[in-house]
Design brief:
Blueprint (H helix, E strand, L loop, with lengths): L1 E4 L14 H15 L15 E5 L2 E5 L3 H6 L28 E7 L5 E6 L9 E5 L9
Parallel strand pairs: 1-4
Antiparallel strand pairs: 2-3, 4-5, 5-6
Pfam families: GDPGP1_N (PF26217)
InterPro entries: GDPGP (IPR026506), GDPGP1_N (IPR058866)
Protein name: GDP-D-glucose phosphorylase 1, variant 2
């Protein structure tokens, strides 16, 4: 699905209302989740969140044991800017059902894709991937 936006669509301050983008992402992510495209189920209620308070700092802990036991094994890199290898993982190999949105500013040609993270930390955890077709590495 394509999603075009203009500067008028950008929220400069947080409000209690969801934007058109928020609603679209939420709907598509939930559909993918209910279609079992993820490697595991997550606690979408956030009931497992633990709050740790120490002084002026509030820390939230979100346990997610499944992420480490069910996710794809991470690739090893020699440097942070290793060139992309066609044999190893790259975003052009991601199945189409993992693509949620193609986002672009109206009247421009550049776009980025929003993909589900099949091993999510939490509800709506997604990946923002610029110009998938250009095979950028993951710097």
């Amino acid at each position: 699905m394509n999603f075009e936006y203009t500067n008028g669509d950008l929220l400069l301050r947080s409000t209690n209302t969801s934007s058109k983008f928020d609603k679209t992402l939420n709907s598509l992510w939930t559909l993918a989740y209910e279609s079992n495209y993820f490697h595991y189920k997550i606690d979408t209620s956030l009931s497992s969140v633990k709050k740790i308070c120490s002084g002026n700092v509030n820390i939230l802990i979100l346990p997610n044991n499944n992420r480490f036991s069910h996710r794809r094994k991470p690739q090893l890199f020699k440097t942070i800017n290793d060139p992309l290898s066609s044999e190893s993982f790259n975003f052009n190999k991601v199945p189409k059902h993992e693509f949620l949105l193609n986002v672009s500013e109206k009247y421009t040609t550049k776009s980025c894709s929003i993909l589900i993270n099949v091993s999510p930390f939490s509800y709506l955890h997604s990946l923002l991937v610029p110009e998938v077709e250009k095979c950028h590495n993951q710097v």
